[in-house]
Amino acid sequence: MAELCKILLADDNPKYMEEILPYYGYEVTSALNGKSALEILHNDKSIDIVLLDVMMPEMNGWETLKNIRSNPETAEIPVIMVTAVSEDQKMISGLKIGADDYIVKPFVLPNLLARIEAVLRRSRRGSDKTSLHNVTISENNQFNSLTRREKDVLLLVAKGENNKSIADKLVLSEVTVKSHLSSIFKKLNVTNRTQLVLLAMQANLLEEKLKN
Question: Nearest Cα to 20, choosing from 110, 103, 85?
Fold first, then answer.
């Protein structure tokens, strides 16, 4: 890493990441539950990123994330959710609350490190006012490459709809929806629905922009 980064690890079983992350140049502060994590964020303004476990005592990851995003002092701190559940619906809900990314347990260490670095890079670009949050669909060639129907599918995916629901609402077959999704994944260089929604949210693709 080019510079020291301070991670708040909110996890009731932090031992593995607490021990391994310093070997890769990270300074780690741990909290065993959501309430402790919020107290640390209130008192320590040097936290660069939060790794937030979903299942914790006293206050779970979802409630902790809501509190982080609702507080102006912590609203811009990047947060990666750590979860044992790989469900698109729950992940998309978390993204809407304000998660910057997800990692599913059990994970491979290089994957975690890559996600931390990617989120930190986006955060730093945002602080330099060159964030993807300033990109609109008309300014982004990736999204311009989508057809109107693919944009419709993307919008419904962002709302958490499954393939059957998308097919019903757009009067398509599920096979056609899968074909559209495959094309969208290829054009936007993502591999799953969660990455797709995250990319769309980073690019500030709100509903009215997708409909234009």
Answer: 110
* Segments of the chain with pLDDT less than 70: 1-3, 85-90, 93, 125-142, 202-212
pLDDT for 140 equals: 52
* Answer CATH for 133-211 from 1.20.1540.10, 1.10.10.10, 1.20.210.10, 1.10.357.10: 1.10.10.10
Helical H segments across 49-108, by residue range: 61-70, 88-97
Which pLDDT score is estimated for 42?
92
CB 96, CB 72: distance < 8 Å: no
| H-run or E-run covering 35 | helix 34-43
Query: Where would I find the H helices in 106-192?
Result: 109-127, 141-144, 148-158, 163-170, 174-188
pLDDT, residue 208, reads 44
What φ, ψ does residue 52 adopt, rounded to 5°?
Answer: -120, 110
Of 20, 12, 189, give the one whose Cα is nearest residue 116: 20
Q: Other CB atoms closer than 10 Å to residue 56's CB: what's the count?
A: 22
Q: Which residues of the chain are in CATH 3.40.50.2300 domains?
A: 5-130
**Radius of gyration of the CA atoms of the chain, in A:** 18
CA angle 8, 160, 105 (to 5 degrees): 40
